[in-house]
Design brief:
The complex is a heterotrimer of chains A (258), B (274) and C (646). Chain B has 274 residues and is mainly alpha-helical. Chain B is built from eight helices and four strands. Chain B has one domain. A two-stranded antiparallel sheet of chain B has the order 1-2. Classes of the chains: A alpha+beta (258), B mainly alpha (274), C alpha/beta (646). Chains in contact: A-B, A-C, B-C. At the A-B interface, strand 2, helix 2, helix 5, helix 8 and helix 9 of A face helix 3 and helix 6 of B. Chain B: Keywords: Membrane, Transmembrane, Transmembrane helix.
Chain lengths: 258, 274, 646
Amino acid sequence: MSGYEARFKVWRGDTRGGGLEDFAVEVNEGEVVLDIIHRLQATQAPDLAVRWNCKAGKCGSCSAEINGRPRLMCMTRMSVFERDETITVTPLRAFPVIRDLVTDVGFNYRKAREIPAFVPPSGLGPGEYRMWQQDVDRPQEFRKCIECFLCQDVCHVVRDHEENKPAYAGPRFLMRTAELDMHPLDAASETGLDRKRTAQDDHGLGYCNITKCCTEVCPESIKITDNALIPMKESAADRKYDPLVWLGSKIRRRSPAD
Amino acid sequence: MATGTEPQPSSGGGVRTGTRAAIAAPHLRTDRWWLAPAVTAAGLLAFVLYSTWRAFADTHYYSAPYVSPFYSPCLAERCQTMHAGPNAALFGSWWIISPAIIILIFPLGFRLTCYYYRKAYYRAFWLSPPACAVAEPHRAYTGETRLPLILQNLHRYFFYAALLVAGVLTYDTVLAFRDTHYRWGHMGLGTLLFLLNIALIWAYTLSCHSCRHIVGGRIKHFSRHPVRYRVWGFISRLNAHHMLLAWASLVSVALADFYVFLLASGAFSDPRFF
Amino acid sequence: MSVVDRQEWDVVVVGAGGAGLRAAIEARERGARTAVICKSLFGKAHTVMAEGGIAAAMGNVNPHDSWQVHFRDTLRGGKFLNQWRMAELHAREAPDRVWELETWGALFDRTDDGRISQRNFGGHEYPRLAHVGDRTGLELIRTLQQKIVALQQEDKKETGDYESRLKVFQECTVTQVLKDGDRVSGVFAYERESGRFFVLEAPAVVIATGGIGKSFKVTSNSWEYTGDGHALALLAGGHLLNMEFVQFHPTGMVWPPSVKGILVTESVRGDGGVLRNSDGKRFMFDYIPDVFKEKYAESEEEGDRWYEDPDHNRRPPELLPRDEVARAINAEVKAGRGSPHGGVFLDVSTRMSAEVIRRRLPSMYHQFKELADVDITAEAMEVGPTCHYVMGGVAVDSDTAAARGVPGLFAAGEVAGGMHGSNRLGGNSLSDLLVFGRRAGLHAAHYAAGTAGRPRVDDAQVATAAAEALRPFSAEGPATGEGQTHPPENPYALHQELQQTMNDLVGIIRRESEMEQALKKLAELRARARRAGIEGHRQFNPGWHLALDLRNMLLVSECVARAALERTESRGGHTREDFPTMNRTWRCVNLLCRLTDPGGPQAASDPVRGQITLSRETTDPIRPDLLALFEKEELVKYLAEEELCA
């Protein structure tokens, strides 16, 4: 495959407004969308704002929407498009724009702070932690998250309803509650913190209607819905909607999730 | 600092909210994103129409030795007598409409609250959202936080009920190893169909997310529960195919019913193997 | 000029990678109000790219391991040029730093008895690298990030404000360390998003900005790696140590062009990957240097057996230290035995099943599948050397991480020099970040608490820094003799020329004439960089950001070229074609770079003089009890006679 000229539409602008701008740009074999954006910077639009870092799908900086789909620019190869196709690149549309392809992702950092941190078990010093691989497998899947925030962007709960942002943590951070809840040594419950209940009451788990777009866009292929959100919903159901479990926990005086 | 953590003022309007990138189009997808919800809607609608007709028909649901899964167990006095079949006249003679209505509540409720079907109909019928990154048409959204959708949390009760129903259908499948004169040790095309159907029903029921949670999902230390861990692993592998099983079992249950209808109405006669 | 916003903090940490975050955590826990400044978003630092693991002699997999063995491996890897006290502290403290991460929520891969699993790596005698698949760096950065959030949650409970004691200024760049006389008084920075300037006043500043890879064309490093911290330290009066030592990682991707340089983790080889040339030959057996002859397998059979039975076999030469492997690959390609795209073949598919590969090397599988359309479970990867790490860096005190000569300035992580000597072992970087990040935070907090009276920030310095930062907006060429002006230079073009220069002339194999040529070219680029001009305004303008980073890259590149020209031997990450062997008399020589004229204009274009003055110093003799860890026969290969007697 030799080089060719591709047509791009890139959203340029800032908080005051903006629009899609047309570019014709050279594309070479093996390139990804981010390469083309860089070529635009170097040759046609030196002040085109874009976030990026590792260029290998590991840092989650270059999130954007390509032909309307949330994706990492560094992991979207040009070969998936037809040569005569016009490729549209816009910033993430669930967050306030700053400039060009750069958005204000502060929402996510605010939400990250609202999730109570890991509670180390009392009585275990550094070096004394013992955990088995089958116990850490589940939370490890969630820790593959590169925080690209594509799931937060695509989730219609906040994408289509700005007013839900205060009440809803979004898939990434509901997954974080699941991760901590499944951590074999997290001692939150000993301090009176019930992560299952807070996921429902404080972080808006009930807003999720499991339509799975978070899983669909995840560049790390984390099964966010099946492995994190639904288990959290089931755990919350244990607590709040299952009188049998409730009764059992009262009688046996222990947590059903040992 | 806008990349910092100060809260932003917010206003309604979804992707067209004032602070977001000024793009008028509700979405910019160029692929056939509408295809999946359209097919889902068509499939579900077809099943709803068919099953409504069959459930209210109150006829042609038994042809020895087969009983339609829509009418099993049959819990009213008006039920057709099925030799050693799933008759139990818990509801007396006062029940005057189709007895299918009594029992269908359970599998219907199970499927209605199923995590896969929820996704399917939220997308296909509610358009909430119609597809990923395609704006939904609703002004407000509260998800499953309040009535009636908060009742989706009852899924596990329907799961327990679905286990019982699957048990009865298993019994019906055993009965299908008889001939039209109730002699054991025979098989016809219907038996095969019933076997297929019950296998898919079980696979669908057991692959359910509630089941996965109950058998092991709530355990924090798998290493201390090796047996439940293995069962959980098995259910998890099944669960990965939950969508496929949901559709396959939906089709097979309708097919089994339709086959009984054909036999009972005399439009077709069951090819017997032995 | 508008009034520049000022804030007061006790400790300012520049950089939010592993070292910066660890320093910030420590400083905050010691009671210092701490600010962290980073160029990217919080949690995106280059540390996420680290794949293999954290080297720490916990002895979980092989109980024979101990800090002494780790120390020995580190010194061997660095060819005995390491600042030995740093290597000692590093080896002693690394296990505690790893275990500490667990108490903050990290989830490493486990051994069968529930402890942290450890894997083999080049240059490490025992399996030593704590890891999480091949995404250990991500785990490290996320754990530290979440620990910072945990501390902020504590502060919120106490003070009502998350950021009262620990604040992260993300997407901000520091362009100047400010001083009050000798002492550090704060930093001058701009917000990338708005272009707004601000000053953080603080008696102690920790530099943890990472490396310099973006000065080279083929590099595994991200855009952030422009040598900012190195340059900040130089400009503040600090010294850079042994800048000639640049590590070329032997295995970077070579195809497709757009990802050339991106790292292929050493775990591929640690887990059994073999290197072959276009003849299908495992060529590494031909490249075992004499100093390592006894430690490595002589036949493929023995090397293969080692994976199963490491106690009775020697390891395969694919696991030699990185410098050796990089040079070998370079030589094979030059000899015409390379792969179609100019690398060699790295193959794991022959030794491991597809399922094992996907489990143990998930991100490598993903990376090749997505970016190169290569299925590593079925075919070989094409790999070649890529600029990866700089061993040289800010000269620091081993125990306190304090930058020599600048009270109040500290440096930790890749930006600090000395720890790794002439070549870093894989896995020693993440442990370095933790050990010295913590030490830098600790001593910065002590220093800040102990200073009598806060240093004063000088308005004139702030004004100068602001004017310097704004210059690219008004770039016009200076009048030439004939009264004409040069057009403004494109910063992207300048950057590309710089990268090409460093890659071609000060790359993996170096020659005197080429380096002299490089210094000339750098002088020319320096002059042109003064005229780097940009379009647009100050809000999130990448052209402007690059124009400002050019200053740093040019300064650092000059240090590398000058030091490389001076050191007339080959050692670790510095290979001279004209001096191909290691010279024992150079072992005790450190090369120090400092700014020739700290107050003067940063544009001196005289290639001979440049901006950097180089000096030599003699290293401290290694403490006898540490020397006693080695066999005499080994020491004679490295140390000069008089050192052995001492």
